[in-house]
Amino acid sequence: MLLNISESLNRMINPKEIRKILSKRYLPHLATISVTLIISAFFIFLGTIEKERDYYEYRSYALSQLSTIKAKLEDTINSTTSLSYGVAAYVSTNPDLNNSDFEGLANKLIVHNKHIRNFGLAKNNVLTYIYPLKGNEEALGFKVLEHPEQRESALRAIKTKQTVVAGPINLVQGGIGFISRTPIYLKPSGKEKGGERYWGQVSVVIKMDTLFEEAGISNNKELNIAVRGKDGTGASGDIFFGDKSVFQSDPILLDVVLPEGSWKLAAIPKAGWESVSSVPLRLKILRTIISLTIGFLVFIYLKAQQRIMESEEKYKMFFQNERDAIVVHDESGEFFDINPAWERLYGYSRKESLKLRATDISAEPENTKAA
Fold first, then answer.
1. Cα torsion angle, 240, 242, 247, 251, sign
2. Phi–psi pair at 363, nearest 5 degrees
3. Backbone phi, then psi, for 258, in 5-degree steps?
4. Of the residues 103, 256, 279, 331, which has the fewest C-beta atoms closer than 10 A?
5. Can you count the helices (H) and strands (E) in the chain?
6. What pLDDT was estimated at residue 3?
């Protein structure tokens, strides 16, 4: 079996063909260029795999960060909504409350929540009560349904009987914020006919700057984040924070679920996806050096082989053309090679000569040279 394999290899690898190929003058240069290009191509392929790996690893990392932001936003909004529900429940059973009652209730709710700018009660859609009053005086008496920017969200809250987070809105009292609107319905008394009666709305103004800073949106050092879905309109809504190009750059996307509707979060790395999946310059330089070094070694090896072949050819020419008889034998005298002059001088054929030893030759012509 091994012999068959050896014979097959010998037939496939013809020494004469190999020598013919190696004798080409341009071979070292061609081989050097080919090897260098192949190794460079391998490193480029390896770099592509590394880029894809880094890209997906960072996407996973960015998704984790964005998920944390989403959770913080939803937690803050849900906690604010819970406060609104509490106020709405109180008013539904105490529709004739006075300003003192409202201030006492609002003070307890707002004191531990830095995101809330103010609480308000819009009886019959007119802002009748507001806390704290200081800094929000201009909003008192504001007619919600007459303001084009706030009308739609107020009507949606009435229609759906759900809390609607509107905004961001340019506030009447100054600044920008979100307004959580919770409709208040009074249950009919025993003498009243019909269903629930609409009383008005609880409005909670959430400060946009502190909300986004606390959640890690506006002050994020690694991600560019954009948010769309003004008034809870989700992916179809307007972009109200960040650059619109973020949504056009293969971003990580997550939905922030609101009590009614949603926002769409988008995030990409600060310097773009290329920055997190690029091969470091020092590694590129190292790979280039490796490619060139291997190519150079191939060049040196092939040039050395060519020099050896040239030496062998010169020796062969000298051996074959020398007029004196030359015989090559080992220490025991066994012949390995003879030149044509030996055959002429001694009368032995090459086949016969290679069966002889030095001791078999009893007399030699004076011009015979043993080596």
1. negative
2. -145, 140
3. -100, 165
4. 331
5. 10, 12
6. 43
